Amino acid sequence: MLALLWGCGSSEPGDLPLATGAVPAVDGAGNEVPTVDISGRWQGKWYSNKTPSTGLLANLIISQNGNDFIGNLEVVGAFLIVGTRPVDGSVFGLKVDGEFDSGVATADWFADVDGRTMNGTYQFRFPFPDEFGTFNMTQP
């Protein structure tokens, strides 16, 4: 059985359903953490650590199958993002590991899920590796 080691803290899956057919994570104490299903619509804000800018994460629509997900993200107020763009990644326990194609560059993003809230960080790769920041989203 595949297991990943994560420091999942005291968060519980909350009111998100558990992912069907997904491998659970394992926390620092060796306990299994069921994998949540993050499918659906998420909305929130992003905050750049490079510049004093912020904007809306207008819509993140995700479809999850087991531990893997795909989706589309619409961002408002960011010059590196052109239109609605694809996202993909994986979920283990309450941890999300994703990739995002902005149309100009690719960004990696990581998030913790707590109930219907997702908080995380993002960092663009070449040619903008110094563009990074944080974000928070909720499921309406």
Q: Can you describe this structure?
A:
- This protein has about 140 residues and is mainly β.
- The protein has a single domain, classed as Porin.
- The protein is about 0% helix and about 55% strand.
- It has no helices and ten strands.
- The strands form two sheets. Strands 3-4-5-6-7-8-9-10 form an eight-stranded antiparallel barrel. Strands 1-2 form a two-stranded antiparallel sheet.
- Strand 6 and strand 7 form a beta hairpin.
- The protein starts with about 25 loop residues before the first strand and ends with a strand.
What is this structure's SSE topology?
Blueprint lengths: L24 E2 L5 E2 L6 E9 L5 E12 L2 E9 L7 E9 L2 E7 L4 E9 L2 E8 L7 E7 L2
Antiparallel strand pairs: 1-2, 3-4, 3-10, 4-5, 5-6, 6-7, 7-8, 8-9, 9-10
Distance between the first and last residues' Cα: 34 Å
Give me the Rg, rounded.
15 Å
Spatially, the strands of the biggest sheet line up as 3-4-5-6-7-8-9-10
Q: Report the average pLDDT across residues.
A: 87
CATH hierarchy class name: Mainly Beta
Low-pLDDT runs: 1-11
Order of helices and strands: EEEEEEEEEE
